[in-house]
TrEMBL record:
Keywords: Copper, Disulfide bond, Metal-binding, Oxidoreductase, Thioether bond. Disulfide bonds join C107-C124, C123-C187. InterPro entries: Di-copper_centre_dom_sf, Polyphenol_oxidase, Polyphenol_oxidase_C, Polyphenol_oxidase_cen, Tyrosinase/Hemocyanin, Tyrosinase_Cu-bd. There is a cross-link at C190-H207 (2'-(S-cysteinyl)-histidine (Cys-His)). It comes from Gossypium barbadense (Sea Island cotton). Pfam families: PPO1_DWL (PF12142), PPO1_KFDV (PF12143), Tyrosinase (PF00264). Cu cation B binds at H355, H359, H389. Its cofactor is Cu(2+). Residues 207-224, 382-393 form the Tyrosinase copper-binding domain. Cu cation A binds at H186, H207, H216. This is Tyrosinase copper-binding domain-containing protein. GO terms for biological process: pigment biosynthetic process.
Length: 619
């Protein structure tokens, strides 16, 4: 924990609005009130579009849009005077359904904050020469360039790639295509350089929401176009770091030569040259070897574990758009998770999982900033960032090909019309909308096809593997044993020891396609702390050997990459975690009528407090 927040009581004070967790987490009595209420009508007077002119568009957006989210949560967020939740909403009239756009004229210094110190970083792009912004047009032509896996490229390719990077680094410093200028794009969109168009007080942030995949896709797209232009090869395709496959689970060799323009000295040297990444928490399997590391893995185990992590994040827990992409982030909402917004922005499975783990793995071990990859403000300065995000982007393509009729991108206009600004390969400023980037082939690129071994890594129940309770209904068994001793009160402070708690399942009947989700609400932490905890359900109570990704009991993790927001805002972050359970419940053969589930929280790094845990049908 950073020094500013070392007592549990500090943890429980929300920034900006002082409110008890119980006020907005409905207890049983309040639930019945919600049920009696008519469904909230977004077109009623409570919500006023900030852009009156496009009111019609908003109507269409919202009805569709609302179907995706739990109406009760929406009531809570918007209910200015309802149910005592008043102080949650800073400005109910700002909560219109409008897309997010960066306000170029607002661009100012970015700030990076450690809780103790505050650093200002200039990250704005060079000024527009003729104040012209071009609307993006997808390239004409049908030739597809294939991005290769970084560990498979040959010498000729490497020579080309290195020359392109060298030239990019050698461009004049004020050329928007210069490497540092490119790196700064990430900093500007993450560390509060821009305000949102129409909302001068709200900063724009491209992480922890449904903007994550589109923003990074287009950021890489232009980066790649610039490289191609610099070597006169418009078909040049950047490599991707194939960390989801056994041969790609170490930092790719081509980035490790200190004399190469692909090298970055701000990395964790202990993880070079051939240490395997741990996709669950970003640590290596070799170090650190501390007592409080819950498990240490051999090389083989680490590879297997990573494949299970991938299956968890890509298959088990990402059956819908909002599970995979993250939740909506609307114009007027504060960056990241804003509990005054409905729904609160929140990251998807891959963003919160393997993506952050790899950032942590590569970033240097020097506090407070863990540059370059370990902090968003500096991540773009490491050439490896672009290969890492290539693979993240590849996951978006793969996700859409997996079976399941809900594995589709959102169709809400408010998402499709959100936009970003980039300088293109000709140094013209271009406005790109999310709708422009849904299909990488339309943009002219795809990924080299390689084996996807994690598709076959479905976890199995630890109890059945160990032969415990075979043939019994596991859910009943475990829940019955714990019923009396697991009544705990919230908030839970999670620091060193595992916590086990019994959570009632919803009484309402489950509709056919509903996903049963474990919702950890109001998780509070210092945004500048590295935090990680694992979550499992109905495990077998072995604290020395908690569930791992290969166990069907393991349902996911929470992790935070330290990221400064604004030095003048609170260091505390309040967020929620959604963990889909349906497939785990099936794998564990838990009776659908079982009325509760035992949840185990295993802290691995840092400290958090958790305001409430419930089970719901959303996501
Ligand atoms: Cu914009 Cu991997 O972060």
């Amino acid at each position: 924990m950073a020094s500013t927040t070392n007592s549990p009581s500090t943890l429980l004070t929300l920034p900006n609005f002082s409110i008890q967790t119980s006020t907005f987490l409905p207890k049983t009595s309040q639930r019945s009130i919600f049920k009696k209420k008519k469904p909230f009508n977004f077109n009623s007077k409570r919500v006023v579009s900030c852009k009156a002119s496009n009111g019609k568009q908003n109507d269409a957006d919202t009805s569709n849009f609302l179907n995706r989210f739990d109406r009760r949560d929406i009531l809570l967020g918007l209910g200015g005077g309802l149910y005592g939740a008043t102080s949650l909403v800073r400005d109910p009239f700002a909560l219109a359904v409008v897309p997010i756009e960066p306000d170029l004229s607002s661009c100012g210094e970015s700030t990076v904050d450690t809780g103790k110190t505050c650093m200002n970083v200039p990250c704005c792009p060079p000024k527009l020469k003729d104040s012209k912004i071009i609307d993006f047009e997808p390239p004409l032509g049908c030739k597809i360039r294939y991005r290769p896996a970084a560990h498979l490229v040959d010498r000729d390719y490497l020579y080309k790639f290195e020359s392109a990077m060298e030239r990019m680094k050698a461009l004049p410093v004020d050329d928007p295509r210069n490497f540092m200028q490119q790196a700064n794009i990430h900093c500007a969109y993450c560390n509060g350089a821009y305000s949102q168009v129409g909302f001068p007080d709200q900063k724009l942030e491209v992480h922890y929401s449904w903007l994550f995949f589109p923003f990074h896709r287009m950021y890489l797209y232009f980066f790649e176009r610039i490289l191609g232009k610099l070597i006169g090869d418009p078909d040049f395709a950047m490599p991707f770091w194939n960390w989801d496959s056994p041969c790609g689970m170490t930092m790719p060799q081509i980035y490790l030569d200190p004399y190469s323009p692909l090298y970055d000295e701000n990395r964790n040297l202990e993880h070079q040259p051939d240490v395997l990444v741990n996709l669950n928490d970003g640590k290596s399997f070799v170090k650190p070897k501390k007592k409080d590391d819950f498990y240490e893995l051999t090389k083989r185990e680490q590879i297997k574990s990573n494949l299970y992590v991938m299956y968890q994040q890509m298959v088990r827990s990402s059956k819908t758009a909002s599970c995979f992409h993250g939740a909506a982030y609307l114009g007027g909402c504060a960056s990241e998770t804003d509990i005054g917004c409905t729904p609160e922005p929140r990251g998807g499975t891959i963003e919160n999982g393997a993506h952050i783990a790899v950032h942590k793995f590569v970033g240097a071990k020097n506090p407070p900033y863990n540059e370059d990859m370990g902090n968003f403000y500096s991540a773009g300065r490491d050439p490896l960032f672009y290969a890492h995000h290539g693979n993240v982007d590849r996951m978006w393509n793969i996700w859409k090909t997996l079976p399941g009729k809900k594995r589709r991108d959102f169709d809400e206009n408010v998402w499709l019309n959100s936009s970003f600004l980039f300088y293109d390969e000709n140094a013209n400023m271009v406005r790109v909308k999310v709708r422009d980037c849904l299909d990488s082939k339309t943009l002219g690129y795809d990924y080299q096809s390689v084996d996807i071994p994690w598709l076959r890594s479905k976890p199995t129940s630890r109890r059945s593997r160990l032969g415990v309770g075979r043939g019994q209904d596991q859910g009943q068994d475990v829940a019955a044993r714990r019923k009396s001793k697991n009544r705990r009160s919230f908030p839970i402070v999670l620091d060193k020891v595992a916590v086990r708690i019994e959570i009632p399942r919803p009484k309402k009947p489950k509709k056919k396609d509903d996903e049963e989700v474990l919702v950890l609400q109001n998780i509070q932490l210092d945004r500048n702390d590295s935090v990680q905890f694992d979550v499992s359900i109905n495990d077998d109570e072995d604290d020395d050997n908690p569930c791992k990704p290969e166990d069907a009991e393991f349902v996911g993790s929470f992790s935070n990459l330290p990221h400064g927001d604004n030095c003048h805002s609170e260091a505390m972050l309040s967020t929620n975690l959604y963990l889909p359970l349906s497939e785990a419940l099936e794998d564990l053969k838990i009776n659908p009528f079982e009325d509760s589930i035992v949840v185990t929280l295993v802290p691995k790094e840092g400290e958090v407090s958790i305001g409430n845990i419930k089970i719901d049908y959303v996501c």
